[in-house]
Amino acid sequence: MKVQILGIGRIREAFYREAVEHYLVRIRRYVPIELKETAKERTGRPQDLETAYAKVRRDHVKAGMPVALDKGGKAVSSEELAAWLEKAMLDGLDIVSFVIGGPHGLAPSALKDSRQVLSLSALTLPHQMARLVLAEQIYRALSIIRGEPYHK
């Protein structure tokens, strides 16, 4: 199984980029993972959100399990995410694709295209930090699946 993180907008701050890359390296010990970023949307207007999402839509929709990250999504624990990813692996899904919006969130079509909508937190997170939290949680879930001591 391959994992994709599709981000609207780019991570500009070096400290976020380095932290995300740290977890991507760790995740690659278990599964292939790819971070794809697009140019950010210009405004929060619906047509700009749709234009930004259109740049990653094809990758997201063709995934066996397209997932959107949105504040209105379902909150899951690390253990629940691990169980969910393990089931995806056992079901033979080829790609799990997580899409994270930019500063103005996701286009409505991104939510519609997704089979799951998850929330990372009830708190509002900068989109760069959301990518970091997601990468860490994917790593944590994979370590839980493997029975490794990272998750305490």
Q: Give the averaged pLDDT, no decimals.
A: 92
Helicity range: 40-55%
Gross CATH architecture: 3-Layer(aba) Sandwich
Describe the largest sheet. Answer: 5 strands, parallel
Q: What percentage of amino acids are in beta strands?
A: 15-25%
* First-residue to last-residue Cα separation: 25 Å
Q: Shape from CA axes?
A: globular
Helix and strand content put the structural class at alpha/beta
Tell me the number of strands: 5
| CATH 4th-level superfamily | SPOUT methyltransferase, trefoil knot domain
Radius of gyration: 15 Å
Strand order of the largest sheet: 2-1-4-3-5
Secondary-structure element sequence?
Answer: EHEHEHEHEH
Low confidence ranges:
none
With helices defined by DSSP (H or I, 4 residues minimum), what is the helix count? 5
Question: If you had to describe this structure to a student in words, what would you say it looks like?
Answer:
- The chain is an alpha/beta fold.
- It has a single domain, classed as Alpha/beta knot, CATH 3.40.1280.
- The chain is 45% helix and 22% strand.
- It has 5 helices and 5 strands; from the N terminus they run βαβαβαβαβα.
- The protein has helices spanning 14-27, 46-62, 78-90, 108-113, 127-145; strands spanning 2-8, 33-38, 65-75, 95-100, 116-119.
- Strand 1 (2-8), helix 1 and strand 2 form a beta-alpha-beta unit.
